[in-house]
Amino acid sequence: MKTAQIVIGLGFGDEGKGITTDFLAKQNPESIVIRFSGGQQAAHTVMIGDKKHVHSSFASGALRGLPSYYSEHCTVHPVFLYNERKVLEELGGNIELHIHPLAKITTPFDVWQNRNNVRNLDHGTCGKGVGATMKRNEGQYKLYAIDLIAPRQMLLEKLEKIAYYYGFLNESEIDDEVNHFLEIVDEINWNISDYSFLEKYSNLIFEGSQGILLDMDHGVFPNVTYANTTSKNAFEICKNLKITAIEMYYVTRSYSTRHGSGWMSNERELKLKNNEEETCVYNDFQKELRTGDLDYDLLNYSLKLDAAYSPDAQRNLVLTCMDQIEVDYKFEKLTTQFAEIYGSFSPDSKGFKQLTSLFQ
Fold first, then answer.
1. Over the stretch 336-360, which tens digit does the pLDDT of each residue have?
2. Is 19 annotated as belonging to a binding site?
3. Among 230, 266, 331, 357, which residue's Cβ finds the most Cβ atoms within 10 Å?
4. With b meaning 16 or more CB within 10 Å and e meaning fewer, what string describes 153-174?
5. Neighbouring residues of 49: CB distance < 8 A, sequence distance ≥ 6
6. 182 and 197 in one domain?
7. Which residue range forms the structural domain that includes residue 251?
8. Residues 173 and 207 in one domain
């Protein structure tokens, strides 16, 4: 029987989906890790011993040695991918990456749009071009992974039209950006594979992006991401592959976080310890990482919402960063029944422990 585990963030992102994915990869070393939302804006940190990698264009099983797959719901930036591949290869990670033909491709012009559009900046963009790519693909100026292996003149024509779409008129500037983009495209051996490729694996690990409270359909507008961050996309892929044995791994830190602007409940500055490996640091687009106390009503909202997309799955809870703050947990307020509750006491997944008996 084919099986699947789906990792979902319960908050505004940065919950610990990377370390949770690595934990599952360690238990299931013959699996493939699938990204089913978002794209190169992810910053999923994995530490294994003295090795550390922030996964963005590769799934968070790569440092552990598992291959990656990007679904049609994801975006891919070839230049960011190329740069990360070099770093991952130096660390001895697995750089095997398969991409669905209909994954959306980010261009330098999309990144420019994200970083220079006032509305995007106000909404809390990561500055990686994801939102602009998704928005552009709603119209006629589409660019997919399959186009990266199309005849060169066809790809060139599409890139130039995308530049004009954003208002670029300087021919030399367009040529410089396009030429560099194409040079990088030529450096990569593209594995363009539809979902039938996944049938060779008996277990699939689905790694979510951001969190349910940033979902494009369910978050508080306008400060949402351009993706379905629930289990919706992952369940559609499982249905396509006829996988029914599915486990959910819902992730939250031991406190609330939000990196970027927008509404956040229970917000207050927390005094944290043992957080030297924090990846979500200040940047020009999202500013400082915001913190707050756990909001159990919001956790219940996220859990009940996602159950509408994953009605028959077994549910587990993962609590990360438990060594960073001392708090009295009130999980009796959660209305979801969990098969297991796990706690993480380290940036390395070896710090995972089963905690079910402590909270029942």
1. 999 999 999 999 999 999 998 777 6
2. yes
3. 230
4. eebeebbbebbeebebeeeeeb
5. 348
6. no
7. 3-101+192-359
8. no
Contact 227, 38 (CB under 8 A): yes
Q: Indicate whether 142 and 198 sit together in one domain.
A: no
Residue 292 among known ligand-binding residues = no
Annotated ligand binding at 17? The verdict is: yes
Cβ partners under 8 Å of residue 345, min gap 6: 322, 323, 351, 353
- Can you tell me the distance from the alpha carbon of 125 to that of 278, in angstroms, rounded to the nearest whole number? 20
Same domain? 326 vs 216 = yes
Which CA distances in Å does 116 have to 8, 119, 158?
30, 9, 22
Q: Is 13 annotated as a binding residue?
A: yes
Q: Omega of the bond prior to 108 within 30 degrees of 0, cis?
A: no
Are 20 and 141 contained in the same domain?
no
Instruction: Give the model confidence (pLDDT) of 235-250 as tens digits.
Output: 999 999 999 999 999 9
CATH number of the domain bearing residue 255: 3.40.440.10
Q: 95 and 42 share a domain? A: yes
Q: Which two tokens stand for residue 290?
A: 């915001």
Do residue 126 and residue 210 come from a single domain? no
The Cα–Cα gap between 58 and 54 comes to 9
Per the DSSP assignment, residues forming a β-bridge with 317 are: 250, 341
User: Residue 231 and residue 124: Cα distance in Å, rounded?
Assistant: 23
Q: Please tell me whether 210 is known to bind a ligand.
A: yes
Residue after which a domain boundary falls, among 191, 224, 246: 191
CA distance 285 to 121: 7
> Is 287 annotated in some ligand binding site?
yes
278-326 residue pLDDT tens: 676 656 666 788 999 999 999 999 999 999 999 999 999 999 999 999 9
With the C-alpha atoms ordered 236, 241, 245, 249, is the resulting torsion angle positive or negative?
negative
Is 227 found in the same domain as 312?
A: yes
- Count other Cβ atoms within 10 Å, centred on residue 360: 10
**pTM of the predicted protein model:** 0.94
- Per the structure, how many domains does the chain have? 2
- Positions marked catalytic: 14, 44
